[in-house]
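Submission checklist for the structure archive. All mandatory fields must be present; incomplete records are returned to the submitter.

[x] Identifier: Fungal specific transcription factor
[x] Organism: Colletotrichum higginsianum
[x] Residue count: 453
[x] Sequence attached
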Amino acid sequence: MTLAPFTEFFLKVYSPGDATHADLIIVYAGLYWLFMECMNATQDAGTKLNYQAQAFTCRDNLETALSSLPFHLPSTIETTCAMFLAALYCLENCQPSAAWNFIATASHMTQTLGCHSIAAIAHEAPQNKYGKIKIFWLIYVVEKGLSLRLGRSSTIRDNDVTVPRPQADTYGFPEPTLMCLFPECTRLATLQGMVYDQIYSPASLCQPQENRHTGKLAEVLGEPLFEAMARTDKVNQLALSCLIYRAVPPEAGEKTVFGKDCIRTARQALEEHKRCMTLLSSPFIPFVVMFCHVVETCNQGDLDLLSDLVATLRSTTAETFSPAIKKELRLFSALYDVACSYMKLKTDSSSQPQPQPASGGPVDHWSLTAGSVQPPPALLQEAATPSGMASLPTETAAMGGGFSINDPQTVPEWGPFTLPGDLTMEVDEQGSQLGNWLYVNNQMIRALENNYF
C-alpha cells in the first residue's frame, strides 16, 4: 500500500462518520509500524521514547479492533487487506495460530473476489486488476509458508490460480530490492506447498518412501535457485531444503538419524543467520536438526553453531522491542542448555562402559526418530534446569514431547503416527517417524504462543 491510499484511510478514520473494522485495522497497523520504524531510526533518547509510546498506543488500538471483529465480515478488498495486515502483526508477535485464522480468511476473500482468476477480473480497470493480483500473491506467499509451518493443508489450490505470476518489473514496488524479491518469494511459496502435499501430508506419509518425491523437490532447490540467493532470503530457502532432506532417510553406512544433506543444509542455515536474521518462520527446522544431531553425535562444531545463534539472538533482544525474538531466545536457550548438559554428561561418562541399545544403533538409544530425546538416568541428578526455566519439563511435555528431563520411566513416549478413519491403512516406518517428527516440531512452534515464554 502506498502513501496516497493510506492517507485516505487515515482521513476516513479520524474524520466524523463511521469507520469500518477494516479501516481501523489498516490505519492502526500502519501507524504502529510507522512509529516503530521512526523509533528505530532516531538517535535521540527522548524522541525514541515518544515514538515508542505512540506505537504502543496504536498497538493497543489495533488489538482492540481485532478483538471486536464480528463473526461475518464482508468480502471486500479493504477487508482482505486488513486481514492480511492482521496476520503479519500476529506473526510478528509469535502468534502463528491466530495468524493462520487471519490469513486463511484473507485467502478465502481473495478467491471470493476472483483475485486468483484472470477470467474473473478480465473486465476490470487496469489499476484495480493489478491491485487485486498484487494482494493475492502477497497473501499466497504468507499463506503457503504458514500452512507448512503449522502442518496444515493450504487453502489455495495451485491448479485454480490463473493470474500471471509477478515479474521483477511488475506491480510498481517502490524498492528495487522488493521488485527482485517478490517473484522468487512466490516461487518459494509454491515449493513450500509442494513439500507439504508430497512429503508431509497424511496421505503422503502413507506412501512408501520411494513414492515420496523428495529427490525431485530437492532438485528444484538446486543451483538455479541458489544463484538467486544473492537477492533473496537464503535462510528461508535453506530451511526449506533442510525440511525436504529430512524426509530422505540416511544411507545405510551413516548410522545417524539425519542424512548428510539434511545436516549440511541445517549447518548452512544456522551460519546464514549470522548475516540475515529471518527468525519468525524458518529457524526451527535447522535448529531442531542440529540439536538432535548434537545429542546423537556430540559434535562440538555443531554445538558451537547453536551457541552462535543463541548469542546473536541475545544481542538482538537488547536492541529490539519484538516479543517474538525474546520468546525464541528463551526457547533456544533452553534447548542449547539441554544439549550442553547431554554433551557434558556423555563426555564425562565416556570412559565408563555403556549399555548397548537393543537394535545396536544410536537411533533407539536417543529416540530421535520419533522426535523425542530421552536422557540417561544420570542426567536427572546432574543436569540443572536453565536459569528462569524452572518449569520447562512440564511445559515441554505438554507441548508434544520434544524432549523431557523428567524420569523416562514415568513419561510415555509418543506412539506410532496413525491416521484417523481407515483403520486398515498401513503407514510405513519412515512415514511414521516423519509424521511424529513434524508434529513435535510444530508443537514447539505453537509453544511460543504460550505466555510462559
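[x] Structure attached
Curator remark: The radius of gyration is 24 Å. The CA atoms of residues 206 and 425 lie 8 Å apart.
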